Hints:
This protein has 1072 residues and is α+β, with helices and mostly antiparallel strands. Among the domains are: 119-206, Orthogonal Bundle (Recoverin, domain 1); 588-775, Methylamine Dehydrogenase, Chain H; 788-953, YVTN repeat-like/Quinoprotein amine dehydrogenase (Methylamine Dehydrogenase, Chain H). The strands form 14 sheets. It has a 6-stranded mixed beta sheet with strand order 6-7-8-9-14-13. A 5-stranded mixed beta sheet has the order 35-36-37-38-42. The chain is elongated. This is WD repeat-containing protein on Y chromosome-like isoform X1.
Amino acid sequence: MPLRKKVRPSSASGKLETSxxxxxxxxxxxxxxxxNSLFGRAxxxxxxxxxxxxxxxxxxxxxxxxxxxxxxxxxxxxxLLKRQQRSHSIGLMENISESESIxxxxxxxxxxxxxxxxxHLTLDQLQKLYTAFQGLETSGHKSVDIESFxxxxxxxxxxxxxxxxxxxxxxxxxxYLATGNIQWHDFCTxxxxxxxxxxxxxxxxxxxxxxxxxxxxxxxxxxPVLRICSLVDSTLITAQEDGQVxxxxxxxxxxxxxxxxxxxxxxxxxxxxxxxxxxxxxxILGTGDRELQFYESSNFExxxxxxxxxxxxxxxxxxxxxxxxxxxxxxxDQGCVNILQLYSVGETLRTWKxxxxxENLPNIRLESAILSSNVTYIRWxxxxxxxxxxxxxxxxxxxxxxxSHEPTALVIGCIVGATNVEQQMREIKENKKDxxxxxxxxxxxxxxxxxxxxxxxxxxxxxxKTFALSKKNNAIVTGGMDRIIRIWNPxxxxxPTGMLKSHMAPIFYVYVSEEDKIFSISTDNTxxxxxxxDQTCLFTACSKNSGIxxxxxxxxxxxxxxxxxxxxxxxxxxxxxxxxxxxxxxVTSHKKPVLCCKFNKVFRHVVSCSEDSVVKxxxxxxxxxxxxxxxxxxxxxxxxxxxDFSGRRLITGGKDGCLKIWNYNNxxxxxxxxxEDRNDEVRDCAYAEINKNEYxxxxxxxxxxNLFYDSTDDFYHIKKPQPHWQDDINWGHKEDILxxxxxxxxxxxxSSYDGEIIVWNMISGHIDHRxxxxxxxxxxxxxxxxxxxxxxxxxxxxKFDSTTASLVSNGPQGYLHFWSLFSEDPLIASFQPSxxxxxxxxxxTTANDSYMYAADEDGYVYVHDIQNYALQDTKEETPKYxxxxxxxxxxxxxxxxxxEDNILLSGSIDCxxxxxxxxxxxxxxxxxxxxWEIFNTSSWKHPMxxxxxxxxxxxxxxxxxxxxxxxxxxxxxxxxxxxxxKATCNPHSSQITDEDIEEEINKRLYSQAxxxxxxxxxxxxxSRWIKHRGPSIYHAIDYYEIDNFSGNCEKPDLSVLxxxxxxxxxxxxxxx
Length: 1072
């Protein structure tokens, strides 16, 4: 297909923007170039900010010697066009003003944070880039280095639109192997994968589903349901062919039901359709006997009927136009649209109700009704086949009707039509004023034809069965026998602006919700949900999944309860799964718990991974989301991540037992690392250099150290691990390995579930040291002693000093253990940073190992000065305390000190990732609406704190009198005071002093930040009854015991007194 046709904007977009194209090679070699004026056209666009759009340029506009150059890939052209602003409007100014996305996208380039440079490329600029690459390839340069790429891109895009830093980052994203050169196909591949992942992430954000299976509700026995209608209060009204009308509550409980048709002389009436006159509390029923019958909607009592219609009313609609004015519309089996305009509706209906009855209903024939001055009757011949759907939309003041007749499949028409002034003047001059009766006969004769300017006709293959209007999007959605859902601009009938192809059977029903979602259902009972903007399918449920069986007779979407009601032999109700409304004050970075995150200093990104296998990339300097991709490890959680030495590739490990290498800037999976025979969960990973070769190290539940050789020359997607070290096989870990840490050039440490720490020599593969968590610090033998975090103090490890600790690990009861790698007594020191003895879940140190940041399971971060700690010649029991604050509500699984910027990165299972200054000042949470500037402290959140932390009871401060200064506070049960000295019962035996009160309080209360076990103990103790003796210090208050009485407590018999004492007392009080 020629490129010109492929990139030509659709007529619905209304944004035609063209420009002349010159060769980038000529621009690089010649100062001037004669422009080709063949494509010079007038530029038209919306008023207001102009969007960058693709120019309709063809390859033929290039020089003749480049005719044989292959075209850019069609997918790239298609993706660039897809990224342009989609609109169903052709210039209605009211729609332009309502569209906030236009202004948002137009102004985004003016903001300080522009995002990715590749996201602003137009098709014209891409064509220039392609020509430049092809020109260089023709001259013998198959690839370009960073300087040539910088010159080409800035020339094509413009030096003012691309800085050197942005171009260099784009080059490094494409050159993920750090070879120093890229080719045109590398550039295209990068863009293709990035656009595909952007579409996937956009779809994930718009996910919407129905709760399956559908809720089933039995309907009264009889004929099929013809129509379902809902009132303002979400009450449902159903009507069946035999005249059975039923009212249902929003919970689909039957409220009342009645057969409105009465069988007279064995003659049956058949219901064709019905509508509701809400202001007048009436139901209008169209019958197969060409009648319109009115019933009271409160009690189904017959009110009146209009008989003698010209054709059978197949589709009914009602519209309240003004005070005491309305319209009744119906489409018939002759393809006509009939309109009854009623004025003084209340008086007119009451007048007709007094007319003689026919079949127990006051009856008036249509020819008699239109003689009234309060009635106007209009009949338009619109379709060549019967009308399948008809609706009046007050927002556009027009009637939309559909038919199976292909030339007139969908028609948008006026009510009255244009006034023919010349015809009226001619009638006045000739005095051709007919009588009312003659006029009525003419009106009931041949239907009128609308003028050409009074209607818009859409020709659709195989006609239209159903349609829906979205005024918000200025679009009409149609469906029919050809199984295609089409989206139309209401004022452009030439071609649709979108086509949705996925149904395998004719479309039975479509609806557009206020959330810009299209709901469709086909005759094979398949339900789909589409996104209006992206025109993608978000949800599909077949008959087997939804449980909808039988032939569909009608459908209705209930906006109030957000549910789709489908009528077959039963009523099937599909409830939309609604997301919980986001808290206005709570900010989350992921939908699921964040299990790991890390700072990338090359691109200055923060990459985070969550439990739902989603990888997100954040801009470190602003907090804005840059990119994301999902299903990284299928349905398995991502447990760990790291970067290679170049910082251009991401390595992730998951519960599926795989390690994967990514170009995380576009979501491309480069390699998968796994074993053939086992899929044990990967718990941690690292990137290391061993013998001048680069390896990826993975540890986990297989209890082995897995080494994967990382080579740029390996073209196999799946890689297998290297043979295990012999020491690892013979004397390695006996339990699951939970953590790994490395210290260049040759040290590697691993820790396991049984509290064992092994230090390895990566060069030889031998075990250097083996440590065990001391049991003396554990609460009991049965306590968990797993080691989940270990780090090297690298500045100490490289000195090979036996008197200093160079390895730190966590342990039970919130302990941190400092180990020496070159001493006979390896455990140098231990202390508890957490005041509540919570398990330390993450550890980080500054670059010079002067300060340690430790985070616990309660979300607290503790800072200690360890510069002179854990040395054998020092006597410090605990390092110098510096600061602490609460960073998260849940366990902090990631802490990282970014020394270049003096920033602390933290991630937690409370679904948040936050930045802090090293002093604990709150900068912000990734995902918040307001961006920050990392070098501008005025943009930080400080002195604010996260809202959820502020309101959490555990974050409340404690009075200094109640706060225990010791970090080893124990819980003292109230049962310990049950055997108190009886001498304290003497009210004069002791004097109460302030020291006594303080001592008693310290015995009874708890620490500021309790662990999970302490929380449980607190809840148990708070639910107990306080013993009546009270605290021992308050025994000066005199009290008396009540002796137990084991006698009979039956009600006394007052009859022996001979008088009612209560009545006697009452009479005595009255006499006084």
